[in-house]
C-alpha cells in the first residue's frame, strides 16, 4: 500500500478498525497528491464528533468504575484524534518538503501512529472491562479544530508533539500516580506505557521543528509555528514537571523558556 493511500484510508473510512489499520501495510513511501483534507475525519455515527459535552471526572472520583471508564474513554478519543491528525499532516504537507525529508518525516510519524493505535487499544480494552463501549459517551474534536490552521510540518509538530503530546507527559504521569494510589495498577501500567511512548513523540517533534525551521533555536521555531490562540502554556499539563521534558531530550534553554512562560490560560479552562 502507498503511504498516501494509507493516510486517506484513516481519514476517509469511518470505522474504528479503519483507523487502526497497521502502518506495516505500507510498503511504498513515494508521495503523490492526496485527496483534499475533509472538514472532519470520517467517523461512524456512534463516535462522531459531538457538540454535547461529557464532563471529565474529577481525580478524586476515579475509584468509581464508571468514572474511571469515562476518563479512559476521553483519553482513547484523543488517541484516535492524534492518529487522524498525523495521517492528515502526511497528506497535507507532502509537498512542503523534499522527497527525502518526506520519507524520513513520514516514517517517524508512522512509528507514532503505530504507538497511538496501541494506546487506543489499551484504553479501549480497559474501559470495555469496566462496562463502557467506545462511542457510549459523546466525543469532542479537540485537536482537529486546529488542523485547518496548520501550514507546514513545523506547525504540525509544534502543536501536536511540542504542545499536546508534551502536555500529555504531565497528564499520563499524573494519572498513573492517581490510579496507583487507589490500587488500580492495571490502569496505571497503561499510563506508564503511554508516558514512555510520548517521550519519543515529543523528541520526534522537537527534531523536526528545529531541523525544518530557519530559526536559531527550538524555542523561536516553536513560537513561530504555533497557530493563533495556542500558546506554550497549553503544553503544560497537571503537575507541570521539567524532568519529563529533560527525559524527552528537549534543550535546556527551551525548558527554561517554557518554565518562564506564563499567560492567563488555566488547566481548568482548556477549551478553545
Ligand atoms: Fe498516544
Ligand atoms: Fe503520542
Describe, in plain words, how this protein is organized in 3D.
This protein is mostly helical and 272 residues long. It has one domain (3-37, 61-269): Ferritin (Up-down Bundle), CATH 1.20.1260. 56% of the residues lie in helices and 0% in strands. Helix 1 (3-12) crosses helix 3 and helix 3 (65-92) packs antiparallel against helix 4. The protein is globular. Mean pLDDT is 93; it is low at 268-272. The structure holds fe (ii) ion (2 copies).
- The CATH class is Mainly Alpha
Tertiary shape: globular
- The low-pLDDT segments are 268-272
Tell me which CATH architecture applies here.
Up-down Bundle
**Number of H/I helices:** 9
Strand tally: 0
Average pLDDT confidence is 93
SS-based class: mainly alpha
Kindly list the characteristics that best describe this protein.
272 residues, mainly alpha, Ferritin, 9 helices, 56% helix, disordered C terminus
Structure in a nutshell:
The protein has 9 helices and no strands. By secondary structure, it is mainly alpha-helical.
Q: How are the secondary structure elements laid out?
A:
Elements: H1 3-12, H2 16-19, H3 65-92, H4 99-129, H5 153-181, H6 185-212, H7 218-225, H8 242-247, H9 252-260
Bound molecules: fe (ii) ion (FE2) (2 copies).
